[in-house]
Amino acid sequence: KPYEQLVAAKIWPTDSSRCPAFRNVMHDVVLNKWFERAISSLILANTVVMATYHEGMDQDTRSLLHLVELGFLLVFTSEATMKLLGMGSTLYWASTENRFDASIVATSIIGAIATVYIDQIQSLLGVKMDLQVVQALRAFRLLRALQLLRFMHRQRALMDVLKTVFRAWRPLAVHSLFCVFSISMFAVVGM
User: Fold this and answer.
1) Which single residue of 2, 41, 92, 188 has CA 20 to 30 Å from 71?
2) Inter-residue contact 129 to 121 (CB < 8 Å)
3) How far is CA 104 from the centre of its chain?
4) What angle is formed at CA 11 by the lines to CA 10 and CA 16, rounded to 5 degrees?
5) What pTM was computed for the model?
6) How far is it, in rounded angstroms, from Cα 129 to Cα 133?
7) At 183, which helix (H) or strand (E)?
8) 121-127: long-range contacts (C-beta < 8 A, 24 or more apart)?
9) What is the mean pLDDT of residues 15-19?
10) For the residues of 8-23, what is the DSSP string, one character each?
11) Best CA proximity match to 104, nearest among 135, 144, 139, 134
C-alpha cells in the first residue's frame, strides 16, 4: 500500500514498540495538522533567524542567534524523534520527507558539535580549520525551507495561484522583451 494509506490506517510494521498506547499518542500528535503547521511556522522562523546573520555583526548578537539556532535544532530533533517513535522505523524511513528531514537534522547536529569543539577537532586532525568552513554546514539547514513546499502542496487554492503565476511567466517575458525592444528602437530613432 502507499505510504500515506499505511500511516492513516495505523498499520504498524513488525518492529512495533512495547508501548503501543504511547506510540498511538505519538502517531496522533505527529500527524495532527496543527503539529505540522507549528513545525512549518518554526521552519519559517528558523529561516528568518538564519537570514539575519551578516558580516560585521557584533559578538553578543552572534551569540544570541547561535543560542536561538540551538533551540530550533532541539525542536527539530524532537520532531524527528517523535515521528520516529510514533510511526516506527519502517514507516518513518519509508517517507522521502522524513529521510530528508533526518539528514538535515543530522547535518545540523554535526555542525553544532563541530562549532563547539572546533579546537579539539583541529588538534585531533592536525589541520587548521577556519570557523567559516564549519559554519558552511549551515547552508544545508537552509534546505529545511524546502519542506514548506510540502505544506503548500497540500493547500489546493495556494497551488492554483502558484500554477497561474508560473503559467504567466512566459507571456510576461515575451511582453517585457517586446517593451524593451520597442523602447530601444525609439531611443535609437530619437538620437
Assistant:
1) 92
2) yes
3) 7
4) 100
5) 0.67
6) 7
7) helix 156-190
8) none
9) 54
10) HTT---TT--S-HHHH
11) 144
CA distances from 55 to 18, 62, 68, 114, 184 (A): 51, 10, 18, 21, 40
Q: Which of 80, 129, 83, 131 lies closest to 104 in space, CA to CA?
A: 80
Rounded Cα–Cα distance for residues 177 and 101 (Å)? 41
The residues near 23 (Cβ < 8 Å, ≥ 6 apart) are 12, 16, 17, 85, 86, 88
| Planar angle of CA 157, 159, 164, nearest 5 degrees | 100
Q: How far apart are CA 84 and CA 89, in angstroms?
A: 6
Query: What integer best gives the mean pLDDT of the chain?
Result: 80
- The length of the chain is 191
Tens digits of residue pLDDT in 157-191 = 777 777 887 888 888 888 888 989 888 888 888 76
Amino acid at 127: V
Distance, CA of 46 to CA of 62 (rounded, Å): 15
Query: Which is it for the CA torsion 179, 181, 182, 187, positive or negative?
Result: positive
